[in-house]
Amino acid sequence: MVDCLSWLHHQINNPERIALGVALALALATWPRGVRPKVHFSSQRTEDHRLPERHGHEQRVLAPQLGQHDDFINPFEFVQFMNAAAGQSSFDIMLEAKAADLALARLRDDVARIAPELVERVC
C-alpha cells in the first residue's frame, strides 16, 4: 500500500495549490475500507550541514536541499497540519525526523505548550 499523503511533499509539489484539507480528504478517500491510512509528516531542513575535515580535505559546508528532512518537527507546522485535519476520518501519522524518538518527545512537549487542545489527538 502506498502512503496517503506527505506534508512536506504536498508543500513542495503542489502546483495546483490544492488546500491541505482538500488534498488530505481526497487522499484518505482512496484507502480501502477497514485499512487505517497513514500520513507522513516532516519539516524542511533549513540549516546547513558541516562535513568534517577528512583525508586532507577541508571542512565543507553544504546548504540544505529542497525536500530534505529536518532533525526535528516544526511544532507550528504540525499544529497547522492538525487543524487542517480536523473533521477528517482517522489516520496514523508517521513522523520523518532524523532525531527519531528525541524529535517525537520534543514535539509532544511543544504541542502541549502551544496547542494543549491537540494533546489528546496526537499523544
In short:
The protein has helices spanning 7-12, 20-28, 75-84, 100-114, 119-122; strands at residues 5-6, 38-41, 49-51, 60-62, 92-95. The chain is an alpha/beta fold and 123 residues long. A hairpin with an 8-residue loop joins strand 3 and strand 4.
Walk me through what this model shows:
The protein has helices at 7-12, 20-28, 75-84, 100-114, 119-122; strands at residues 5-6, 38-41, 49-51, 60-62, 92-95. It has one domain (6-24, 36-45, 65-122). A three-stranded parallel sheet has the order 1-2-5. The model has no long low-confidence stretch (mean pLDDT 87). The longest helix has 15 residues, at 100-114. Strand 3 (49-51) and strand 4 (60-62) form a beta hairpin. It is 36% helix and 13% strand. The radius of gyration is 17 Å and the shape is globular. With 123 residues, it is an alpha/beta fold.
Whole-number count of domains: 1
Low-confidence stretches: none
One letter per element, helices H and strands E, the order comes to EHHEEEHEHH
* Class from helix and strand fractions: alpha/beta
What's the rounded overall pLDDT mean? Answer: 87
Q: Largest beta sheet: what is the strand line-up? A: 1-2-5
Helices and strands in order:
Layout: E1 5-6, H1 7-12, H2 20-28, E2 38-41, E3 49-51, E4 60-62, H3 75-84, E5 92-95, H4 100-114, H5 119-122
Parallel strand pairs: 1-2, 2-5
Antiparallel strand pairs: 3-4
